[in-house]
């Protein structure tokens, strides 16, 4: 069959899927970047600088390492939304690229459910192992474990049909002790994590979090992320942060990393956010912090928070003390 990309007669959806996957792959090949699938309180992160990457089919990307694997498949109805939000550090911020696909949702099962053999396993040797959905009930992520160990399999089957993700459920301790592969799935991607569940600190490389107290809030993402109303993040890319290295350690401000995300934001950010941020930054630099008007919209307020946190790193005449006044 002819390669329609070379012939130039592919559909607009096919061209969009290819273009978005190119952006995603460029991020994943950056050893300082990561990808995640999850909701508030449940997350799988793929961060594997030494992973091998393949495009086994149109619009499909697969990455493998000894600690985890990732598969992404686009159909052309997806969009990237670049965002910024304050971090827990007073002078810092987080940012990302969320993959959105309006109208597409996961299974949102509410109870522990046995799904049968994992025929879609990215580990070829694990396709006869049994997949269990833990039942988060969230529309943008199905959080599963893959089990072949007979005693653990029997334990999971004892709890089928039960709500097992609330605080203190005994199954959670059994899963931590056994550390089966975690398989976290959205309508556009799958992350498999093979390394053991960490008990004390977040490990390097691919890992998962399951935090029942946060899950109880029933949020698909933190409220301070400036995403479109009703958006469901189905995959999130985490580009290099200019203030923190890939281990989360503080470093000197990296203006090149900042500039790279600014270009992504200009292309993939919400237009109202991008325009508000540009206007606020220009006014701050020319007239000072006192000249900034009170923003009237949620996106403008989010943009101002980013401008004030970033300004001290970009212009030494704007101090963090001034930024804290807003």
Describe the 3D structure.
Helix 7 (about 270-285) packs across helix 8. The chain has helices spanning about 5, 10-30, 150-160, 170-180, 210-215, 255-270, 270-285, 300-315, 320-325, and strands at about 35-40, 40-45, 50-55, 60-65, 70-75, 80-85, 95-100, 115, 130-135, 140-145, 180-185, 190-195, 205-210, 235-240. The N and C termini lie far apart (about 60 Å). The chain has about 325 residues and is an alpha+beta fold. It folds into two domains: about 1-110 and about 185-270, no CATH class; about 270-325, no CATH class. The relative contact order is 0.16. Residues about 1-10 and about 315-325 have low confidence and may be disordered. The chain contains nine helices and 14 strands.
SSE layout and pairing:
Blueprint: H1 4-7, H2 12-28, E1 34-39, E2 42-46, E3 52-57, E4 60-64, E5 68-73, E6 79-86, E7 93-100, E8 113-117, E9 130-133, E10 142-147, H3 150-158, H4 170-178, E11 182-185, E12 189-193, E13 207-210, H5 212-215, E14 235-238, H6 255-268, H7 271-287, H8 298-314, H9 320-323
Antiparallel strand pairs: 1-2, 1-14, 2-13, 3-4, 4-5, 5-12, 6-7, 7-14, 8-9, 9-10, 10-11, 11-12
């Amino acid at each position: 069959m002819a390669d329609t990309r070379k012939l130039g007669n592919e559909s607009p959806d096919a061209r969009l899927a290819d273009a978005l996957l190119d952006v995603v792959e460029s991020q994943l090949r950056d050893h300082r970047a990561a990808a995640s699938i999850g909701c508030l309180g449940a997350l799988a992160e793929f961060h594997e600088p030494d992973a091998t990457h393949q495009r086994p089919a149109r619009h499909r990307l697969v990455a493998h390492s000894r600690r985890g694997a990732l598969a992404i498949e686009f159909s052309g109805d997806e969009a990237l939304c670049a965002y910024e939000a304050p971090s827990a550090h007073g002078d810092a911020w987080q940012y990302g690229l969320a993959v959105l696909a309006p109208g597409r949702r996961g299974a949102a099962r509410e109870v522990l459910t046995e799904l049968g053999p994992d025929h879609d396993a990215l580990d070829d040797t694990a396709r006869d192992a049994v997949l269990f959905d833990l039942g988060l009930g969230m529309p943008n992520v199905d959080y599963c474990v893959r089990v072949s160990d007979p005693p653990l399999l029997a334990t999971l089957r004892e709890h089928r049909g039960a709500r097992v993700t609330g605080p203190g459920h005994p199954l959670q301790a059994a899963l931590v002790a056994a550390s089966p592969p975690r398989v976290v799935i959205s309508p556009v991607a799958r992350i498999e994590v093979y390394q053991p569940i960490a008990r004390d600190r977040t490990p390097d490389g691919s890992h998962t979090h399951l935090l029942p107290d946060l899950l109880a809030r029933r949020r698909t993402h933190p409220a301070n992320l400036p995403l479109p109303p009703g958006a469901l993040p189905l995959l999130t890319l985490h580009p290099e942060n200019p203030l923190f290295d890939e281990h989360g350690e503080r470093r000197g401000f990296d203006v090149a990393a900042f500039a790279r995300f600014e270009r992504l934001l200009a292309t993939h950010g919400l237009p109202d956010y991008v325009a508000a941020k540009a206007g606020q930054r220009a006014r701050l630099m020319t007239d000072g912090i006192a000249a900034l008007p009170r923003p009237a919209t949620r996106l403008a307020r989010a943009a101002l928070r980013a401008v004030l946190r970033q300004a001290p790193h970009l212009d030494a005449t704007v101090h963090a003390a001034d930024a804290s006044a807003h």
